[in-house]
Structures are given as structure tokens and as C-alpha cells.
Specification:
Strand order of the largest sheet: 1-4-3-2-5-6
Order of helices and strands: EHEHEHEHHHEHEHHEEE
Helix content: 25-40%
CATH class of the largest domain: Alpha Beta
Structural class: alpha/beta
Number of strands: 9
Number of helices: 9
Radius of gyration: 19 Å
């Protein structure tokens, strides 16, 4: 991450001093951009932070590995938490404030409230990971209510998550603008992800099937293909050459409603998920005829 500004980064764990600092900035007329993360930062996060700097005078980042969005057999306990490295990268990115809440800060004793965006949370990743997006929506609402930013920055790689948060913000009249940063890729096309660290060298080669399959789907659409089934077949044809790729889903859905389509007549999301070794990877692109 390249340096953005010379201001020192403040680090806060508690809620009240966080709110007081942000309120002071906003009282001075400074626009505040917020980038929530689970840490283990990579170039995708750097891209979001750079975009946030372009639109906000102050940039707040949070690092919180949210237990509510992990299933009982998922990787919550082994999820990478390189705290010192993450802090150094956020300093280099020119972040003004790093908020590092503890689990007990966001989920204190007696806490019971959950947020669900009905329908949006039961397809794609939601079908594969029941309860995941309830955990995402709940923690994002908590984080946004705590920080009170003008802009909330999310990544396109997690397109379903971004759409769910957009719907939640609109439905609950949350006074924040949700912005999306583009998916950041390695030079060979692999989407940047914290879970790429789980891949061996051979598995990483297999993981390229996700981006290559999507490239085949995009090429089919650009040639005039409008059958969603044919677009999905283009993805799977690329995957057949990679035996280490185990499909979870290949889907063509309406980009707004996230519901499956039979024919591509408006903006769609082409989304894929697969397991490679012990890593579960996702990727996608949006396309409009």
C-alpha cells in the first residue's frame, strides 16, 4: 500500500472515543469514508482505501473477524489475523483511524438482535452458507451505526454481500452511501482474497479456473449469447480442464434482485463458487447487454 497522507493513524478499541472523534471531524465539515475489513489485508483492501481517500477527507477502517458470519465447520478460528502487518499496511495507506473492537464490544452479554434481508440471503452464497448473510448484515449495521460515516466502501468481489448491504441501507433508512470498488486481481487473473493463502502452488494454478471460466462466460455474452444456461456451460467447460476445482455453484442472476434468469435481457451478475484444496473461493462479474 502506498502512502497517502502524512497524518498519523489513531487506533481505538472502544466505542465512545470512536464516536467522539468521528463526530468532531464531521462537525468540522470533513466527509468520512469507512472501510470495514476482517483483516489479513491485501491489494483489494488497498484499492478500497485508495478509493475512499478520493471521496472522503477522513478514512476510517475497522478490523474485526466477525464470528456471526462463520458456520460451525468454517474457518473462524484459523482465519488469519496478522495484526501487526495489518496495522503497518493501514498506516502506509494513510488511514486516519483504525477501529479494532473485541467480540464482546459488538456482541455483549444479553445481545439478541439480528438483521436479515429476506430473499437476498437465501441464494448463491446464502444457500451454500446458511446464516452467513444474517451475520454480515448484523455486523455491518452495527459498524455503520457506531462509526456514522458518509460513505461505506465494499468490494465487488463480494457482490452479493454488497447488494444485501445496499438493500438493508435503503430499507432501514440508514444515512450512508454504499459505494463499490472493483475486484482486484493478480496479474494472472486470480481475484485477490484472504483465503488465497490457503492454496498450495498446485492448487493456486487450479484456482485460475474461476477467472478463466468467467472470462469464457463474458466472451460468450459479448458474442451475443443470451441463454443463461449456455453462459453457465461456458464456465464449466473451462473448469473441466482443472480437476482440482470442485463446483459449489455457477449462476446467472439478475444483478438487482439476485434471482436466477433464463435469458439475459438486463444487467446480470455471473457468479461462481468452488472449492480448491481447503479453500472455498468466489468470483463474479456484472454485465449488461
Amino acid at each position: 500500500m502506498d502512502a497517502k497522507v502524512a497524518r498519523p493513524m489513531k487506533m481505538i478499541a472502544q466505542l465512545q472515543p470512536l464516536r467522539e472523534l468521528v463526530r468532531g471531524w464531521k462537525a468540522n465539515g470533513e466527509r468520512v469514508a469507512f472501510v470495514p475489513t476482517m483483516g489479513n489485508l491485501h491489494a483489494g483492501h488497498a484499492s478500497l482505501l485508495s478509493a475512499a481517500h478520493l471521496h472522503g477527507r477522513r478514512v476510517v477502517a475497522s478490523v474485526f473477524v466477525n464470528p456471526l458470519q462463520f458456520g460451525p465447520h468454517e474457518d473462524y478460528r484459523r482465519y488469519p489475523r496478522p495484526r501487526a502487518r495489518d496495522r503497518a499496511r493501514l498506516v502506509a495507506a494513510g488511514v486516519d483511524l483504525l477501529w479494532e473492537p473485541d467480540v464482546g464490544d459488538l456482541y455483549p452479554d444479553g445481545e439478541r438482535t439480528r438483521v436479515r434481508v429476506a430473499g437476498f440471503d437465501a441464494v448463491l452464497e446464502g444457500a451454500a452458507r446458511p446464516g452467513h448473510f444474517e451475520g454480515v448484515a448484523t455486523v455491518v449495521l452495527k459498524l455503520v451505526n457506531a462509526v456514522g460515516p458518509d460513505d461505506l466502501w465494499l468490494g465487488q468481489k463480494d457482490a452479493q454481500q454488497a447488494r444485501i448491504v445496499e438493500r438493508m441501507v435503503a430499507d432501514l433508512f440508514v444515512p450512508v452511501r454504499v459505494r463499490r470498488g472493483p475486484t482486484v486481481r493478480e496479474p494472472d487473473g486470480l481475484a485477490r482474497s484472504s483465503r488465497n493463502a490457503y492454496l498450495s502452488a498446485a492448487e493456486r494454478d487450479d484456482a485460475l479456473a474461476l477467472s478463466r471460466g468467467l472470462a469464457s462466460a463474458r466472451a460468450a455474452l459479448e458474442r451475443g449469447e443470451r441463454s443463461a444456461a449456455a453462459v453457465a456451460r461456458a464456465v464449466r467447460a473451462a473448469w473441466r480442464r482443472m480437476p482440482g476445482v470442485r463446483e459449489d455453484y455457477v449462476a446467472v442472476v439478475d444483478a438487482d434482485t439476485l434471482q436466477p434468469v433464463r435469458a439475459v435481457r438486463r444487467r446480470v451478475l455471473v457468479a461462481v463458487a468452488a472449492r480448491v484444496g481447503r479453500a472455498r473461493l468466489i468470483d463474479n462479474f456484472e454485465w449488461e447487454p
